[in-house]
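Quick illustration, no need to memorize.
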Amino acid sequence: MKNSVSKSVTRESVFAGAHHVNAVHSIECGNYLGAWFETLKHSPHYTQMCRSGLFNSAASLKTYEMFGAVEDLTFAQWWACKGLDEFGCGCVELGDGYEITYQSIGFDIKVSISFPLARPASAIRFEGLAFAVSNKFRGLLSDRPAIWPFFRSKVSPYAIGRSLQVVRACQRFASNGKFKMWEIGEQLNLKRASTGQPGDWRIDLTDKHIDMGKLVSAENKRGITLAFNASQGFFPSFARR
């Protein structure tokens, strides 16, 4: 007979996939599902496909079926009208009678673990579940959306959030030719070592501005690529396809 242990995980802990710094203000990017949602909002390709109803591939259509149009929605609004139905519950089977199920209850996620042999409940930790699931299922979250509460990747929600923050800033100031790339980086606190300080020599300040400008340009390209890949049904991926 299987033994079962349940624990409730608050929304704060489930959505705490990364530590926030000044460069990431949106709580939606604290976990992979929120980061996925935010990435689609930053994708002009996804927005256009949603508006036209024409999708480039089966993968992009699948993404639309899961998320719908997100252009004018906050994460909370989307979760209430669409996300809860699509991602609010699921089951992850790890084999040998070991499985994890989860269900959203309000803003909480209830996680249940079933396994063939008795184990002390105190030996089971949420972090351990995430590690076990992420090691079982390698690849992109878009390949197995149901594992989003436990998903882990080298591409962190923080890295995604930072790239999207830079994309937003670059789009906002694109029409202002007087606004420099390094100024965007300094305002977002992207890299302290490349931020000008009072008393810096002019040559040192110039080097910092060049370094910060390159960083902003690279992050902007990464964010644009990430958003495009998400629109095509691949997330999270910074690789050019």
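The longest strand covers residues 98-105.
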